[in-house]
Design a protein that fits this description.
With 129 residues, this protein is of the alpha/beta class. It is built from four helices and nine strands. It has two domains: 30 residues, no CATH class; 94 residues, Flavocytochrome B2, Chain A, domain 1.
Length: 129
């Protein structure tokens, strides 16, 4: 049984004897799974919130990736976390072609580069983009 970020203790009480009681402690991780939807749009602010070993998102070439489930398997260890919630395009380019192709398994959408403020929207309108 998992609850976000909470230790769950299960106890089976079959007898009064302490040795017969089974106690199992499970460390539950708060890992939100997002559907792999290339059309999903994520803001820079949303990506920045995912910078821990429980939820680690990366940006590379305008795409958003969620490699959280891969952190412990990564050959370089937890070094992915140093770019958690940030642009990791430079790190993406460092990898071999085979490794870069694996990134697509963790793509959860695109970075939303549309301006969110009135000033940004006005600038975009007048710049003709």
């Amino acid at each position: 049984m998992c609850f976000a970020g909470v230790n769950v203790v299960k106890a089976r009480e079959g007898t009064d004897n302490r040795e017969d009681n089974v106690i199992e402690e499970v460390q539950a991780k708060s890992v939100a799974r997002y559907e792999r939807d290339i059309n999903a749009r994520w803001s820079v602010e949303e990506v920045a919130r995912h910078n821990s070993d429980h939820s680690c998102w990366l940006i590379a070439h305008g795409k958003v990736f969620d490699p959280t489930e891969y952190l412990e398997s990564h050959p370089g260890g937890l070094c992915i976390l140093k770019r958690g919630g940030q642009d990791a395009t430079r790190d993406f380019e460092f990898h071999s072609r085979k490794a870069r192709n694996r990134w697509s398994d963790y793509c959860i959408g695109m970075l939303d580069t549309e301006p969110t403020t009135i000033c940004g929207k006005v600038l975009k309108y007048f710049s003709g983009r």
